[in-house]
Amino acid sequence: MRILLIPFFTFISFNPLTCSSFADSRLLEAFPLSQIRSSAAGWKYSQSQSTAGDITYRATLISTNMIEFSYPYAGGTNVSLTIRKTKGDRYVYLEVEKGLFTRSFQNGSAQVQFDGQKPIIYSLSAAANGRANIVFFEKEAKLIEQMKRAKNMVVNLSFAGQKPREIKFQIAGLRWNH
Which residue range(s) make up the domain with 164? Predict the structure, then answer.
């Protein structure tokens, strides 16, 4: 009697905007493709566990508008908005696949507007490892609470060598209890 073993693989689409592997604790951890859930509102939720047993929760949303850059980042790109919690630390950050945020985010800021209301200024900080395609919001707890109550969010900020851009998100339906 012969037994034929057939390997079975499941392919899950991978988007580098929502998942990467970096040693910097302020950035993303290795993502073992566990418990991915999407909501009707567009938020993608995930939960992963590190080899040390630390659980990381994420909620990621892709911008509704594409940002067009000139040379050397020619072409359109979306921006991802991610909320991440691991080991009690919570972060909210923007990540762009093409392009770089300006290097002035050590004391930089962005204007954030919820549902057409008056814009609120949020301080931003650069990634600790120097990656220029990610910026972190300060006062993330306040930002998350505002995001839970709003339907739309517009972020106005600068990119290196480019004019300031508006990044639009339909944030309605955020479920974040971490």
Answer: 37-170
- CATH number assigned to the domain comprising residue 54: 2.60.40.1880
Q: Is 9 exposed, middle or buried (0-12, 13-18, 19+ CB in 10 A)?
A: exposed
Task: Answer whether residue 60 shows pLDDT above 60.
Answer: yes
pTM above 0.85, yes or no: no
> What's the domain count of the chain?
1
120 in any annotated domain: yes
Residue 81, in any domain of the structure: yes
Taking 70 as the threshold, does the pLDDT of residue 88 lie above it?
A: yes
Check whether 119 has a pLDDT greater than 60: yes
